[in-house]
Design a protein that fits this description.
With 164 residues, the chain is an alpha/beta fold. Strands 3-2-1-4-5 form a five-stranded parallel beta sheet. Helix 1 crosses helix 9 and helix 3 packs antiparallel against helix 6. Strand 4, helix 7 and strand 5 form a beta-alpha-beta unit. The longest helix has 13 residues. It has ten helices and five strands, in the order E-H-H-E-H-H-E-H-H-E-H-E-H-H-H.
C-alpha cells in the first residue's frame, strides 16, 4: 500500500529509474499519485539521441500527466530548465510536498521553495527498503551504462544504505 504522499517528478529521475529497472513500476507502490508536468512529458517525448524511455513512459497510464503547461514565474524560468521549473511550480500550485529532482541547482531551488526532496537514488532505496526486488549495484551499473552521471559519494551512500 503506497504512502499517502504525492510526488511531482522531473525528467532525469524518470529516465534514471527506467534505466535502472526497466520501468517505473515501483512508483505506485511508494506514492499515492505521481504528477508529471507537461514540460517533463515534452522532454521525455523529445527522446534524446536514441529515444530511450519513451515507450516505457507511455505505457505508464497511471502517471498523472499534465496536458497543459505550468505558468512558471520568471525567476524559475531564468534559473532552471523547463522541467525542473515546472516540477517546482506544479508542486507549489497543487500543494505537493515532495519532488523528485536529481540536478543540484533544481534541488537547491526546491529546498528554497519549502519542498521536500528525493531523487532517483532515494526512490530506489525507498523501494528496496519496502521489499521491491532491486540490486542497487546493478541499478547503478545500468544507469551509468545509459550515461547517467552519479558521483562517487552518491554511489557509496546508495550501496551503504542498501547494504550492498
Amino acid at each position: 500500500m503506497p504512502e499517502e504522499k504525492e510526488l511531482a517528478i522531473n525528467t532525469t529521475p524518470i529516465i534514471s529509474l527506467i534505466a535502472a529497472t526497466g520501468s517505473l513500476d515501483m512508483l505506485p507502490l511508494l506514492y499515492s499519485r505521481v504528477w508529471v508536468p507537461f514540460e517533463v512529458c515534452r522532454e521525455i517525448h523529445a527522446g534524446g539521441a536514441d529515444n530511450f524511455a519513451i515507450t516505457e513512459f507511455e505505457q505508464m497510464s497511471w502517471l498523472h500527466k499534465q496536458n497543459t503547461p505550468v505558468k512558471i514565474p520568471v525567476l524559475l524560468q531564468n534559473s532552471l530548465d523547463s522541467g525542473e521549473a515546472a516540477v517546482i511550480q506544479l508542486a507549489l500550485q497543487e500543494d505537493i510536498e515532495l519532488v523528485a529532482i536529481d540536478e543540484n541547482v533544481g534541488r537547491r531551488f526546491a529546498r528554497l521553495s519549502g519542498l521536500n526532496l528525493t531523487g532517483s537514488i532515494g526512490i530506489l532505496l525507498k523501494a528496496k527498503k519496502l521489499g521491491y526486488p532491486i540490486s542497487m549495484r546493478d541499478a547503478i551499473r545500468r544507469m551509468r551504462q545509459r550515461g547517467i552521471w552519479l558521483g562517487n559519494s552518491v554511489v557509496e551512500f546508495a550501496l551503504r544504505e542498501a547494504g550492498e
